[in-house]
Amino acid sequence: MSRSIRALTIAGPGADFELSDVVLDDPVAGEVLVRVEAVGMCHADLAVRAGDFPFPLPGVAGHEGAGRVEAVGAGVTSVRPGDRVMLTFDSCGHCAGCVSGTPTQCRDFVAHNFTNGARPDGSPTLRRPGAPIHGSFFGQSSFATFALAGERNAVPVTGAAAELAPELLAPLGCGVQTGAGAVLNVLRPRAGDSLVVFGAGAVGLAAVMAGALLPLRQLIVVDVQDPRLELAGRLGATDVVNGRDTDVVAALRDLTGGGPQYALESSGVPAVLQQAVRSLAIGGLLGVVGVPPFGVTAALDVADLVNDSKRIVGIVEGASNPPVFLPRLAELVASGALPVAALVTTFPLADAERAAEAMQAGAAIKPVLLP
User: Fold this and answer.
1) Looking at the domain assignment, is residue 354 inside a domain?
2) Which residue range forms the structural domain that includes residue 229?
3) What is d(CA 340, CA 227) in angstroms, rounded to the nearest whole number?
4) How far apart are CA 141 and CA 117, in angstroms?
5) Is residue 242 assigned to a domain?
6) pLDDT of residue 18
7) Distance CA 141, CA 326 (A)
8) Which one of 4, 281, 308, 367 is CB 3.0 to 4.6 Å from 41, fit for a cystine?
């Protein structure tokens, strides 16, 4: 069986989002059908639209869904119809990474989230008469009124968090999880240390909010937009640096007395990555979450890296184990400790193009679409 839904389709690279009627399968074994109440817009969605991401088109993007379970397939036990859920990345559940609690290192992460455009077995979740349509983006394709997800990437929302507005839950599934998780799960700066966040978009500001929960000596943010730097200050940054007209490396070394012990690069700009590495203190650790188009490279001074014992680590989705970490984030939002509302601007699903324009212009940090 199946149902007709409304979804934002992308006809091909460079095409606009178009609200269309498509047919969505009912859930098979291990799947969850979710009535989408809100879905965040992320740079990965815009990269799909631009053709810079390895997701087949025509298709439906969207990977920060939140809503209520409508139906479940055979064998699903963690959620039931009526439950509120957050949707996040998918994983196989069987490889060494998954069974050890690190599903961001799933052996089949790319296939499950980007390249298949279908279920892991190749069967489609979306159809329309006369033309193919690809789904299962991040195991959900939630730019729609309904989405099919796997039990593994549909995380129940309970307690006080279940009363949150859906637009505050949706960004947790990717952007907030990535930034906050990079700080709390991977970098783990110690009391009295300095942390620099490069890039004050949704991911970078989520990292700032997480850093503000810790007893850091300094929490510094680098960006080129003054309004975003001002917001970073309101969210807990102790210092800000506008890289448009400043020698960033010199400024950071001056502010920290030789360079930060920890840094996070969230902009996806190779030149900023180079600045981040150069600015680190001896023995410093840099986490990289910003991703440019596939194949883009950055030149690094190897002698600087080796002689100063600097470390660089790539971080996917905040190294999160979603069933554990997402409820923790939701509780922090419900308590007011993680002020995600400061990042969110809502738009109707039909206004996706306006949301994308606002995001690209810097007028909206985290657009959230409401079906």
Assistant:
1) yes
2) 176-317
3) 17
4) 9
5) yes
6) 97
7) 19
8) 367
Q: The CATH number of the domain where 278 resides is what?
A: 3.40.50.720
10 beta partners = 17, 59
- Which residues lie across from 288 on neighbouring strands? 265, 314
Question: Do both 255 and 128 map to the same domain?
Answer: no
Residues in the chain, how many? 371
Same structural domain, 350 and 307: no
78 burial class (0-12, 13-18, 19+ CB within 10 angstroms)? middle
**Predicted pLDDT at 331:** 98
Split at pLDDT 50, 70, 90, the class of 131 is confident
For residue 51, what are the CA distances in angstroms to 57, 130, 143, 337? Answer: 8, 23, 17, 37
Q: Is residue 53 part of a domain?
A: yes
Tokens, residue 309: 């014992």
Q: Which of 104, 260, 271, 278 is nearest to 197 (CA)?
A: 260
Non-local CB neighbours of 245 within 8 Å, separated by 6+ positions: none
The Cα–Cα gap between 249 and 286 comes to 14
Do 141 and 243 have their domain in common?
no
Assign 201 to helix, strand or coil. Answer: coil
CATH code for the domain in which residue 343 is found? 3.90.180.10
Cβ–Cβ under 8 Å, residues 109 and 91: yes
**pLDDT score at 283:** 98
What pLDDT was estimated at residue 53? 87
The mean pLDDT value for 298-307 works out to: 94
Number of domains in the chain: 2
Predicted model pTM: 0.96
Are 16 and 47 part of one and the same domain? yes
Instruction: Measure the CA–CA gap between 346 and 142, rounded to whole angstroms.
Output: 16
pLDDT in tens, 242-267: 999 899 999 999 999 999 999 999 99
Residue 48 neighbours by CB under 8 Å, 6+ apart: 10, 55, 57, 59, 61, 137
Q: What sign does the dihedral 251-256-262-264 (CA atoms) show?
A: negative
